[in-house]
Amino acid sequence: MKKAWQILWKIIKISGITVAAILILLFVGPYLFPDTVAKQIKHWTNQSIKGDLNFTKARLSFFTHFPSLTLTLYDVDLKGSAPFAVDTLLSAEKLGFGVNLEKLIFNHLVSINKIYLNGAFIHVMVNESGQANYNIYVADTTNNTASTDSSAASLHLEKIVVKDSRLVYNDQSVPMLIQADHLYYEGTGDLSKSIFDLASHIRSDSLSFMLNNHDYVRRKALDANLVTSINTKTLALIFQQNKIRMNKLNLAFTGKLDFLKNGYDLDFNISSQNADLYQLVTIFPPEYLDWLEKTTVKGTINLTSTLKGKYIASTGEMPDYGLKLTIRDGFIDYQDAQIPVSQLNGHAEVELPSLDQEKLHVKIDSLSFKLAQDYFRSHLETNGFSEPKIQVLADAKMNLANLKLATGISSFDAKGQLALHLSANGKYSTKIVKTSFRKKDTVIASIPVFDMTCSIKNGYVKYYKVAQPIQNIFLEMHATCPDANYQHAYFKIDTLHATALKNYLEARGIIHASTDYPMDLNLKGSVDLSDIKQVYPLDSLTLSGLMLINISANGKYAPDHHLFPKTTAEFNLKDGFIQTAYYPHPIEKINILLHATDNAGDLNSLNCSLQPASLNFEGKPFYFEGKFKNFDDLNYDLSANGEIDLGKIYQVFARKDIGISGFIRIKANFKGKQSDAKNGRYNQLKNSGSLDVKDLKITQELFPQPFFISTGHFRFEQDKMWFENFLAAYGKSDLQLDGFVENVINYFLGKNEILKANFNLRSKFIDLNEFSVYASPARASSIKKPSTD
Fold first, then answer.
1. 73, 116 in Cβ contact below 8 A?
2. How far is CA 38 from CA 18, 31, 32, 34, in A?
3. What global pTM score does this model have?
4. Which residues of 18-38 are buried (b: 16+ CB within 10 A; e: fewer)?
5. CB within 8 A of 700, min separation 6: which ones?
6. Can you tell me the mean pLDDT for 554-582?
7. How far apart, in whole angstroms, are the C-alpha atoms of residue 635 and residue 718?
8. What share of the chain in percent tops pLDDT 70?
9. At 655, is the pLDDT very low, low, confident or very high (cuts 50, 70, 90)?
10. CB of 229 within 8 A of CB of 240?
11. 717 and 689 in contact (C-beta within 8 Å)?
12. How many CB atoms lie within 10 A of CB 764?
């Protein structure tokens, strides 16, 4: 017994001494060869990395990534390669280089076989020309450097570990954007070989993927195990038996990626077979996840997505994209609705050859579901985008309240009984035709043959952001076209009725889309514009005023044949008010009263009168009034008086492609007959008044410079408009103009009429290059105001 105890004691002492020696070696080891490790790694870094590398301190230890001997750099900032030399490629709390201990001890060689990143931000950038910021590594092109030069470290990677980091990959040449937050990555493989397998594990709490400015994946959790065969000589990646979990959807990913000199060669396949419909819904945008938590979703799906072909931006060559999705026995029940959506079945295919939207092919063989005894059935197939060939069938009988409860639609509440039948088959296309000697227009060449009936009874819609509903909605309509000629289309509304608060709208009518547009329409309504915000969310628009509409029209509308429906129409807006978020002050005190009558059904009997109308903007009133009779030979009596700040009123209805500022003031009266103007009987015309322009500046995206009119006085006299004191500039060019334009009234009222002019043009300098669309935009300081000298 004593002998056994002595043997045990010796074993304990030897083990303790061994462990103590190892611990001492681990602590002291880094100090035994600091020049061998730290200096050589720093030397290798300076020689092998082109980017500017900065860090606050370095530490050599076994314990940072035990048992590897690791040189850790703290607070790292690494700049990218040209043309991104001033932009950060990598910033990290810690960057560690693991050393091959066997080669260090026995061969006194420093071989980096592991890289560790902690708390990093990796920002990869590629510009539109394909230049990237990650080309910072200078490979050693000499032979046997690691074995002959002991003064420098070498790179023979076997493992890369990234923890709690953020990745942004922004490739403007595609364009493509990938973002991953809280990224964890561990990759193992002999990266020093020209051909090797890389086993990777990737996790991210939030992954986003955008291609051509369209979101395909947005803030999704990712967990993936990948095995990738990499050929560094041919720059080919082969993805083998890769398993991906996105949120709760399991996906299988296989494929190949070849890096070409001017692009990529892709062959990707992502699929999920016999998965749950619930798992598919989890990859929807984040705003749907709260809905999913309250909803029971069942069913089986098969999903396959492919991307195959070459992407070469310089030649425009694009890969083919395909998607197939099948849903079987789907079931949706939001918050235990009494009547769920059931028997949801469908099969859809999307093909996009060469990523060309004009070659888009969408086929939904069937999409159907039931809602108790109600149903929805449909079939759809389209080819093309701008001028698609369409085939669609749809039938529905639906209680909208039950549909809303079952699906949990959150933006609005709906009630009523919907019945729908739709069939369409054919191509929508356009063509260009000449409308005059110089003008062309795009018109509809063909439409699908279609037939549609739709009815809504006891309809009700209430948006959740407002207090009041639109209710008592009744609709009975039928529309059809027996062939591809849109002029043979027929639209009939037997009933259209809706109310909101004290407001109402009623309509019925028939319209034939033939050349003379036979119609029988009746429209009547009363709307207090201030009530609209109570029934429909108007986030950036404030309206008020009482609007009354009463229109009755029966007959043919064919101005070219001097036909106009027998009409009685009245439009009345009292105390109108419009204010948008683009400008702090409103257009107010808008009053318009418009009457139109035609008792005979021709243009000769058409009479319109615009009673004294007015508006007020920035404290300045504007008035206009007009009467128009006999549109075969228009008898007009029109007057306008007021001043408008164009820049400020433009801001109310701001558009991005056009900019305008300046003032106009008009005081003019126009009275006469079109035939008198046409036949030169100018003494019968009573046109007089003036239009003054001041500091008018117009910018348009097609022109590199702004047009600037400092002053312009236009005087109206009979059929002439005189230019007086007209001073303008475009860039460095200046213009002074005087003279007149004649045949003005006939030009505006008639067709194919020609303006006649007699001008004197003076200029001190005209730079024709500035009028080119390729000219460089001038800075504000270089814009020349017209000279008054």
1. no
2. 27, 10, 11, 6
3. 0.72
4. eeeeeeeeeeebbeebeebbb
5. 657, 658, 659
6. 90
7. 15
8. 84
9. low
10. yes
11. no
12. 10
